[in-house]
Predict the structure.
Amino acid sequence: EVETAIAGWRSGEHGVLETLQVKDRTLLVFSRSYGYLCVSELLADRARPLMAKGWVGDMLYEDRLLPEPLARRLFDDPADLDWARKKFPPLFDGSQPHAHRLFGQLVNEAKARGKPARDQFLWSDANGDGLVQDEELRLFRAEDAGGFSFKSMWRSAYDADLALYQSTVKDKKITLWRLPIKEWNQAGAPVYDLADAKPYGEHDIGNAPECPVLWASAKGQTIVNASPLAGFAPDGHRLWDYPN
């Protein structure tokens, strides 16, 4: 379940597929709603998943059941997981479609209880099999990463070096974030360290959703899909805006 959900995409899913050349390799980058992104190496007969990241609730976008390897990592205290199972049983028994919406309620109520759930995930293949092992998978909260979050209203932003770009909104200000690749491991997968996620610009945006969509150019310029539409230099300097 977790292998299918995190390291691949299933028929019927919508998103954006792009190819990216990294030296002599062709990478296939798939991204879709809620900030999900999967990078694979395009081989002659298949695409081998290398890394993926996103919001845990996205695992429930098509599937109805939260994979157990993810469920048991939502909280530190088993009592909190017991609370979640009793409060939101469809997440764990697969009895309700569109369960990602219910997961959003779980995240909000857990935070209100003072016991926030780990609702973000990051995976890099370490042994070259293209599958997800427990030791390769990290779940985290935005609070664990200094406020950095993978959530987005739609697709993910990245540049030619596969640095990841995100945005967060607080007190009507938008913060731009960049997470560069730390290294390429022996399995040929990109590895990221959440400690390397750094804000590079903070701006007033007139009307911004909770998780504005970003687009990044090969040179690291970013565009924020808010109102107004705004463009930023790699150092976070605001270059222009336009009515949206």
Remarks:
- Residues 1-12 have pLDDT under 50 and may be disordered.
- The helical segments are 2-7, 68-71, 78-87, 90-93, 99-112.
